[in-house]
Write a sequence for this structure.
C-alpha cells in the first residue's frame, strides 16, 4: 500500500511548476467526463424529510448484501414513511427509525442478518492510500468506497456521511430499520463493529445541521423535537422528475489521483506548508449531478 | 512516542478481566477529582449568540500569544458585539466576524501578528499517542491540547471544536477579527498553515447545528441568514452569574490514560472487535462544569 504514493505523484501534470497549483476543488471542476461514473439508480434510496428536503443515499450491496436487501425492501414497503429522526448526537451520529418498528415485518426481510462487518478483498478493485492510518494496517478505496484492510479482508470505514445499521448488544446485528449517519469526526472505532450499508451522496448538509438532542446519546427528549420523515423510497419508485441522477468520481482515474495528491500536498497559493499526508476520511469521493446530454 | 502504549496499558485496572470493561464515558464519570483541573478563567472568552445561547472558548496563549492577546483585546473592546456568523461550510468550518471589520483598531492590537503556526516543544508537558497519524510524525497532548510534532516543534491540531484565525493569502496571518471553528472531520491539512488560538469547551453543539451556507465556501448568500452575535466578552468581564466555571481532564492523569486506552480498545459489551488504535482527534479531552464546593 505504501508504494502507491510514487505512482500518484507521477500522474501529476508537470505544468504545476510553472502555474499555481490547483486546489482539490479546481481539479474536480476540471476533471474530464471520463473521470466520472454514473451511480446505478437501483442503488439509490431517497429520504424526503418533513420539510421536503431530499437526502440521497447510495447503498453498498457489495459489502452488506443482506442488510442492503432488507433496507430496499423496507423502503419499497414504505416502512419509514411517517417515521422520524430521533437522535442527533453532536460529533457522532444522526439516527432515524420507522413510526412503528414492531409492526409485522414485510416479506423478504431477514430478521437476523449475518454480521456483515467485513468481506474478502477478492473481486474488489482497490486503490491504496499511501499514508499511515490510526486504525487499520491499510486504507484506500474499494470499488470507490473508503475502506480499511488487513490484507485479506476489507471493510467500509466510518467516514463523514457513511450510513450504518444501529443494533442492540451483540450478537444482534440490526435488521436495518434503525439507521445512522456519521455527522462529524469519523468514529472509526465502529469499523467492523456495525454493518455499514451506504453513504449520503447529497443532502448531508441537511442532516449535519439538525439540532442536537439533549437526552442521553443525543436522543431528543420530547417527541415534538423529532424530525419528521415524509418518505423513504427506492429512487426508481419516485416520479421521474424527483429521481436523482448522480455521478461519482472514479477512484481509478488520473483526476482522482491528482485530487488525492492535492488533498495530501496542498501547494495552491493559500497554503504555506503542505501536510505530506492525508487521512482516509479527508478524501471524500467527489459527487456531481450527471450532466445533461449535449 | 510509540512506546507510550505499553505505559498506558500498564495503567489499566486488572479488574477489567472480571467485570465488563468500562466505556470511555463511564471512565470519565468515575474519574476522581484529582484527574480534573480548573480552566483558568482569564483564558476563557464567552460568545453569546442572538438567541442567548452561550459558547465558551478556551484560548491558547502558550501557542499563539500575539493572536490570543489580540482576541482578548477585541473582546474587551466589544468588537464582535453586533457581529455575526457569516459562513457555515458543511464538513469544514463555521466562521464569524465583527459588524465592521474596517473600524479603527483598538489600541494594543498588533495589526500583523507573526505566523504563530508552531512553537518549540521546550517548556511543554507532552503525552504521546502511541498510534500512527496520517499527518504528523508524532501526535499527542501538550499541556492538555491536541498537537502534532516533528520532534523539535509542536503545533495545535485542527480537531473538532478547535478555533483558528481566518486570513487572506500569505504572508497575511489574520489579526484575529475573523475566527473559525472546525465543525466536522478534522481538516488537519490546515495544521501549521493558520494560527489556532483555542477550542470550544461548551456550546459546540450550537455551532455544529447551524444551517449550512449555500454560497461559495459556505458563506450565507443573504445577510438575513447571518447568525447574530450579541456579544463576545472575556469571561472575567461577565456578571458573576454568567461566568463559566469549567474543568478539563488532566491528560497526565491515570484516568485520562484509561480513557485514552478505552477509546483505542473498546472492550465494553457493545463492541465485538476493538480497533487497537485511535486518531488524535477522536480523543477529545473531557470537559465538565466545576463541582460546587462540598
Amino acid at each position: 500500500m505504501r508504494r502507491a504514493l510514487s505512482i500518484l505523484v507521477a500522474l501529476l501534470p508537470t505544468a504545476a511548476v510553472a502555474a499555481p497549483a490547483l486546489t482539490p476543488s479546481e481539479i474536480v471542476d476540471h476533471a474530464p467526463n471520463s473521470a466520472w461514473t454514473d451511480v446505478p439508480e437501483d442503488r439509490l434510496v431517497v429520504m424526503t424529510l418533513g420539510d421536503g428536503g431530499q437526502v440521497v443515499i447510495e447503498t453498498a450491496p457489495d459489502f452488506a448484501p443482506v442488510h442492503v436487501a432488507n433496507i430496499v425492501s423496507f423502503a419499497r414497503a414504505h416502512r419509514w414513511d411517517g417515521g422520524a429522526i430521533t437522535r442527533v448526537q453532536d460529533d457522532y451520529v444522526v439516527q432515524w427509525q420507522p413510526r412503528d418498528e414492531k409492526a409485522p415485518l414485510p416479506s423478504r426481510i431477514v430478521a437476523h442478518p449475518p454480521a456483515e462487518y467485513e468481506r474478502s478483498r477478492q473481486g474488489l478493485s482497490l486503490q491504496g492510500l499511501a499514508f499511515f492510518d490510526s486504525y487499520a494496517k491499510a486504507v484506500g478505496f474499494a470499488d470507490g468506497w473508503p475502506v480499511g484492510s488487513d490484507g485479506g479482508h476489507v471493510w467500509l470505514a466510518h467516514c463523514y456521511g457513511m450510513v450504518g445499521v444501529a443494533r442492540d448488544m451483540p450478537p444482534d446485528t440490526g435488521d436495518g430499520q434503525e439507521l445512522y449517519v456519521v455527522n462529524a469526526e469519523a468514529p472509526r472505532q465502529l469499523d467492523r463493529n456495525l454493518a455499514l450499508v451506504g453513504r449520503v451522496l447529497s443532502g448531508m448538509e441537511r442532516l449535519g445541521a439538525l439540532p442536537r438532542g439533549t437526552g442521553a446519546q443525543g436522543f431528543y427528549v420530547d417527541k415534538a423535537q423529532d424530525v419528521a420523515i415524509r418518505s423513504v423510497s427506492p429512487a426508481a419508485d419516485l416520479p421521474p422528475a424527483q429521481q436523482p441522477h448522480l455521478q461519482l468520481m472514479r477512484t481509478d482515474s488520473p483526476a482522482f489521483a491528482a485530487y488525492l495528491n492535492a488533498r495530501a500536498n496542498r501547494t495552491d497559493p493559500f497554503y504555506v506548508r503542505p501536510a505530506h499526508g492525508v487521512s482516509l476520511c479527508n478524501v471524500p469521493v467527489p459527487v456531481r449531478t450527471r450532466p445533461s446530454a449535449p
In short: The radius of gyration of chain B is 20 Å.
